[in-house]
UniProtKB/TrEMBL annotation, chain A:
InterPro entries hit by this protein: Aminotransferase_I/II_large, Ethylene_sulfur-biosynth, NHTrfase_class1_PyrdxlP-BS, PyrdxlP-dep_Trfase, PyrdxlP-dep_Trfase_major, PyrdxlP-dep_Trfase_small
Protein name per its UniProtKB record: 1-aminocyclopropane-1-carboxylate synthase
Gene Ontology MF terms: pyridoxal phosphate binding; transaminase activity
Entries under PROSITE patterns matching the protein: AA_TRANSFER_CLASS_1 (PS00105)
Sequence ranges assigned to domain Aminotransferase class I/classII large in this UniProt record: 49-428
Protein's organism: Rhynchospora pubera
Keywords: Pyridoxal phosphate
Required co-factors: pyridoxal 5'-phosphate
Similarity comment: Belongs to the class-I pyridoxal-phosphate-dependent aminotransferase family.
GO BP term, pick one: amino acid metabolic process
Automatic annotation (TrEMBL), chain B:
E.C. number: 4.4.1.14
Lineage, highest ranks first: Eukaryota, Viridiplantae, Streptophyta, Embryophyta, Tracheophyta
InterPro entries assigned: Aminotransferase_I/II_large, Ethylene_sulfur-biosynth, NHTrfase_class1_PyrdxlP-BS, PyrdxlP-dep_Trfase, PyrdxlP-dep_Trfase_major, PyrdxlP-dep_Trfase_small
Native source organism of the sequence: Rhynchospora pubera
Identification of the protein by name: 1-aminocyclopropane-1-carboxylate synthase
Annotated metabolic or biological route of this protein: Alkene biosynthesis; ethylene biosynthesis via S-adenosyl-L-methionine; ethylene from S-adenosyl-L-methionine: step 1/2
Length: 438, 487
């Protein structure tokens, strides 16, 4: 057989050959281990249980019930009238009804404490696209964004890969429950300046992934003051806002802005998505809400690369505009997540594992510092491997979230049935018992 | 709701955001604005602007609608399909639903008459054809690098390929003298120009069938192209978004079919961009495809697809539809037939008025030759004529200059985005316009002959010079007095 050998051709791009896609991180290695040996109650009861994926499967029944009871939705999507218009609809403004529905839903989540103007909503195919798009708009290649640690590992790709923008971490630690402090902000900013990097914005996640905590009012005020004083943008990723266990405990940046009479609001942009609160990651529904007209216009133009499928917009509009439904959904979803969280934390405590006190999200921030052989990243990764290989649990090591304190792990609990969760928790229990004996 | 706008904050946007790489200031979009503010409707606004600037395929949507009605199980919000809801809604794997990739591979193979077989594992999703182009640019070139692109080309390539990537598009000029065919000389010349200016050429971007020409590349041209990219060791991105919209000839010849013909052809240089927006008439569903013969590019593009995945609801629906062999065969055949009929009607209608189009066998538009109506052989004259067509004739067509055509006077006119009745209204308007111009040209020529006699009587001394001037082709081409009359 003749093996064809060609002369070298022009290389692929630097972006293509870099590893900034981030997939070499242990965050994703665990996913691969799961893919190769996935747990199944009957066919593979000793397989890996996926606790590294922040998905919300606790409230699907509510969505299915809605669609079952509202068959007019399927008629709307598939056709008696309007199929053709919908099939052709590629206007980057998005369906009016859908933008209004998103605005309404976001208002409901915030307990009606703020109003959203649907004309300021830009739709994107998921929050992944929204965060990258905003980065393209506010920063040039080589510039920097400040991001409080620990943060969602996907940001390394979303904010940096194709944009060429740098992330400077704002380091937080357990001494004050990982809250962002003015000092940490100033330190990060100074570090950027020293490295000759122009800081164009701060991106925060509220409620936090991976901490599972909602930001407090004083911290939010501090952050707003900071970004104003440094003349930069603020991106508030609020994709878990509907997953705060109690509505009083979530304060959106939108509320603070409203209280301040929207002074300096044009620096602020909110990112949202239906992937977490509604548990619909497959539908690729993300949104940017910006108080800055130029950002809205530009984001809308850029959304051409990442529009939401018109049939998905059509299907979800009625449901999200139905305030009776959304009120009930948000309340029920919160209750169910809270119940799960409390159950997980209690079971873990019973076997000697503590978690950060959380009030939001689809995961808990577990403290395994006492189990580390050495208080280093290496020590943490060794423990992570043990948990993956011996306990067959894929959890996310804090180092993959850029946590500066080794020993913390993010453990997701909302992406599985309660039976599977019990199996996972009993594996922790056995592990801790074994350790006590040795 | 207004917010305090602090003017000094305008500098807070990136160069990409502040520039006009979004391309919306092009004349291509001006016509759309005219249409948006006064859209034609047969009943409520019969005097409005008819949209002929949008390459959309409405001719076979009834077939798709019928299929969807007959297959409620393919929709996750119907009673029959609801049991799929949870699994589908949860599915965000960037590999895409396996059945969806298989369905796409089958459909693409069918559109090529079964002569090409596509591997579902090399199919990557993107946010429409728009997203596919941008992703390929990110994978294959660095900021400042260039791709060569034959003119005339789809205006939005400047945005799709260049805006956020920083990659440049350099023209390979094509001319009407050989029906705008791509030549080896043109390729070499474009490449050499880039080299002289120290610009790194990373590849060639072509569209086959062509937008805006509606022509398909013949075997020789494809081989010339393949030989060229292999010699220069650069990439070839082939946008085959209209591959299922070829009519009036036996089959469409895709570049994929020729890859095994020569041992010198390196497959890893070849990347196809596709979408269901044109062939299936579903631009709203945002289904873009990248198919690459280069595994590294597939891997990279797949990772990038996270930024523009296809909604799982849509993947689910279309995997059922496009795996339905009976349906896809029927659809592709019927689409060809209806496009052919529409194309014939439209072009023969134009011919009656003495207006010719470039002979074409594909696409949703014709490349109309209006050079005879140009006041002068310049882009300005073309744009003036175009304004007349929008403002007076009330048709939104796209001027050749927006496609970077080297020769003024050509216009892309879309015919598949309307019903028969509207098409006839459009033809009538064109006919009236053509007649009017002929009448006025005749009158003007009569007036000129009279004036000529007067002038000659004054200029007997400089006889030779004046006569020469009067006989120049410039003055003998008919002028459109409507251009002068335009506001």
């Amino acid at each position: 057989m003749v093996v064809k050998v060609y002369k070298p051709c022009v290389p692929l791009s630097a972006i293509a050959t870099s590893s900034t896609h981030g997939e070499d991180s242990p965050y994703f290695a665990g996913w691969r281990a799961y893919d190769e040996d996935p747990y199944d109650a009957t066919t593979n009861p000793s397989g890996v249980i996926q606790m590294g994926l922040a998905e919300n499967q606790v409230s699907f029944d509510l969505l299915e019930k809605y669609l079952e009871e509202h068959q007019e939705v399927s008629k709307l999507v598939n056709g008696i009238g309007g199929f053709r218009e919908n099939a052709l609809f590629q206007d980057y403004h998005g369906l009016n009804s859908f933008r209004k529905a998103m605005a309404s839903f976001m208002e409901e989540i915030r307990g009606g404490k703020v109003k959203f103007d649907s004309n300021r909503i830009v739709l994107t195919a998921g929050a992944t696209a929204a965060n990258e798009l905003l980065t393209f708009i506010i920063a040039n290649p080589g510039d920097a964004l400040l991001v409080p640690t620990p943060y969602y590992p996907g940001f390394d790709r979303d904010l940096r890969w194709r944009t060429g923008v740098n992330i400077i971490p704002v380091n937080c630690n357990s001494s004050n429950k990982f809250q962002i402090t003015k000092q940490a902000l100033e330190e990060a900013y100074a570090k950027a300046k020293k490295a000759d990097l122009q800081v164009k914005g701060l991106l925060m996640t509220n409620p936090s992934n991976p901490l599972g905590t909602a930001m407090t009012r004083p911290v939010l005020e501090e952050i707003l003051n900071f970004i104003s004083s440094k003349n930069m943008h603020l991106i508030s990723d609020e994709i878990y806002s509907g997953s705060v266990f109690s509505s009083e405990e979530f304060i959106s940046i939108a509320e603070i802005l409203e209280e301040r009479g929207y002074a300096d609001a044009q620096r602020v942009h909110i990112v949202y998505s239906l992937s977490k609160d509604l548990g619909l990651p497959g539908f690729r529904v993300g949104a940017i809400y910006s108080y800055n007209d130029a950002v809205v216009t530009t984001a809308r133009r850029m959304s051409s690369f990442t529009l939401v499928s018109s049939q998905t917009q059509k299907m979800l509009s009625p449901m999200l505009s139905d305030v009776t439904f959304t009120k009930n959904y948000i309340k029920t979803n919160r209750e169910r997540l809270k119940r799960r969280y409390n159950y997980v934390v209690e079971r873990l405590r019973e076997c000697g594992i503590e978690c950060l006190h959380g009030n939001a999200g689809l995961f808990c921030w577990m403290n395994l510092k006492p189990l580390l052989e050495e208080a280093t990243t290496d020590g943490e990764l060794k423990l992570w491997e043990t948990i993956l290989k011996d306990l067959k649990l894929d959890i996310s090591p804090g180092s993959s979230c850029h946590c500066t304190e080794p020993g913390w792990f993010r453990v997701c609990f909302a992406n599985m049935s309660i039976e599977t969760l019990d199996v996972a928790l009993s594996r922790f229990t056995s592990f801790m018992e074994k350790r006590r004996k040795t | 709701m207004g917010y305090q706008s602090v003017s000094e904050n305008s500098h807070l946007l990136s160069r990409i955001a502040a520039g006009d790489g979004h391309g919306e200031n092009s004349s291509y979009f001006d016509g759309w604005k005219a249409y948006d503010s006064n859209p034609f409707h047969p009943v409520s606004n019969p005097g409005g602007v008819i949209q002929m600037g949008l390459a959309e395929n409405l001719l076979c949507l009834d077939l798709i609608k019928e299929w969807i009605k007959e297959h409620p199980e393919a929709s996750i919000c119907t009673e029959e399909g609801l049991n799929y809801f949870e699994a589908v809604a949860n599915f965000q794997d960037y590999h895409g639903l396996p059945s969806f990739r298989q369905a796409l591979a089958r459909f693409m193979g069918k559109a090529r008459g079964g002569r090409v077989s596509f591997n579902p594992d090399s199919i990557v999703m993107s946010g429409g054809g728009t997203g596919a182009q941008e992703t390929l640019a990110f994978c294959l070139a660095d900021p400042g690098d260039a791709f060569l692109v034959p003119t005339p080309y789809y205006p939005a390539f400047d945005r799709d390929f260049c805006w956020r990537t920083g990659v440049r598009l350099l023209p390979i000029n094509c001319f009407s003298s050989n029906n705008f065919k791509l030549t080896k000389a043109a390729l070499e010349s474009a490449y050499e120009t880039a080299r002289k200016n120290n610009i790194g050429v990373k590849g060639v971007l072509m569209t086959n069938p062509s937008n805006p020409l509606g022509t398909t590349m013949d075997r020789d041209t494809l081989k010339t192209l393949l030989t060229f990219v292999n010699q220069k060791r650069i990439h070839l991105v082939c946008d085959e978004v209209f591959s299922g919209s070829v009519f009036n000839q036996a089959d469409f010849l895709s570049v994929c079919e020729l890859l095994d013909e020569e041992p010198s052809y390196d497959k890893s240089l070849i990347h196809i961009a596709y979408s269901l927006s044109k062939d299936l008439g579903l631009p709203g569903f945002r289904v873009g495809v990248i198919y690459s013969y280069n595994d590294t590019v597939v891997k990279c593009a797949r990772r990038m697809s996270s930024f523009g995945l296809v909604s799982s609801q849509t993947q689910h629906l279309l995997s059922h539809m496009l795996n339905d062999d009976d349906f896809t065969s029927k659809y592709l055949a019927e689409n060809k037939r209806r496009l052919h009929t529409r194309h014939e009607e439209f072009t023969s209608g134009l011919e009656k008025f003495g207006i010719n189009c470039l002979p074409s066998t594909a696409g949703l538009f014709v490349w109309m030759d209006l050079r005879q109506f140009l006041k002068e052989n310049t882009e300005n004259a073309e744009l003036k004529l175009w304004r007349v067509i929008i403002d007076d004739v009330k048709l939104n067509v796209s001027p050749g200059s927006s496609f970077r055509c080297t020769e003024p006077g050509w216009f892309r006119v879309c015919f598949a985005n309307m019903d028969d009745a509207t098409m006839h209204v459009a033809l009538k308007r064109i006919g009236d316009f053509a007649d009017k111009v002929k009448d006025e040209t005749t009158q003007l020529q009569q007036k000129k002959r009279f004036n000529k006699k007067l002038r000659l009587s004054f200029c007997r001394i400089n006889d030779g010079g004046i006569t020469q001037h009067l006989m120049s082709p410039h003055l003998q081409s008919p002028r459109s007095p409507l251009v002068k009359a335009s506001h």
